[in-house]
Write a structure and sequence with these properties.
69 residues; mainly beta; 5-stranded antiparallel β-sheet; two-stranded antiparallel ribbon; globular
């Protein structure tokens, strides 16, 4: 099962469990979430894909903007 989540249509300020608060991207002006992973460069997430696999769940960003460190 694959699910695509588009955060650009959500209202800024809306709190989404496990994601955080919807904000406006400083680079492109679209809505989404700021992500600062420990092992990768920070980015602003706009669209992500989630797949439920036999051994767990795989989440991949489909549309994102790179942020300065």
């Amino acid at each position: 099962m694959i699910n695509v989540e588009d955060f650009t249509s959500l209202e800024p300020g809306l709190l989404i469990p496990l994601q955080g608060r919807v904000e406006v991207c400083p680079r492109c002006g679209r809505n989404g979430f700021e992500e600062r992973p420990a092992c990768a460069a920070p980015y602003f997430l706009h669209v992500q894909s989630t797949a439920v696999l036999a051994d767990g769940m795989l989440t991949e960003p489909l549309d994102r903007c790179a942020l300065p460190n």
